[in-house]
Structure formats: C-alpha cells, structure tokens
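Marked as duplicate of an earlier ticket. Keeping the data here for the record.
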Amino acid sequence: MSDLICTRGYITWFHLENGFGFAKPDHGDIDVLIHISVIEFDGEINLEEGQRVYMELEEVKDKPHWNAVKVLPLAKPFFALESL
C-alpha cells in the first residue's frame, strides 16, 4: 500500500445510484475517485456538489486520478442552505 495523503477538499460530482463520484483537494489539481464504500457517515449518504470533505488519498499508478480510502463529509455547500 502506498503512503496516504490527508487533505480537505470539495465534491465536484457524486452519483448515489452508481455509488461513486469525484472530488478535488484544496491544494493541487488532481481528481479524486470516491466510492460509496469509503464514506463514513451518520444516517443517509447525500454528498452534494461543492460539499466540503476530509479525505485520505492514495495514488493509483498508471491512472489520471487518485483514490479516496476514507471520506468524512463536513459542511453542506453554502448554496445548498435554505435562505433565512
């Protein structure tokens, strides 16, 4: 197993029915593949575009993306909050 990188980032796309999506770390221009099985959650899984996440990543040799091995959802995206 390769060394893990711990970072924060945001969801760029997630399709619940297909069980995967992608995120971008705050620093760097890599795509991160997120599989539903690595998401730690309380209750219902519902990752939204722009949502902040904590990720533990591993590089995938010969692929243009990295894999998330652990994802913790943080705050919902600002634009998803209801108006006060």
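See parent ticket for discussion. The beta strands are 5-15, 20-25, 31-35, 52-59, 65-73.
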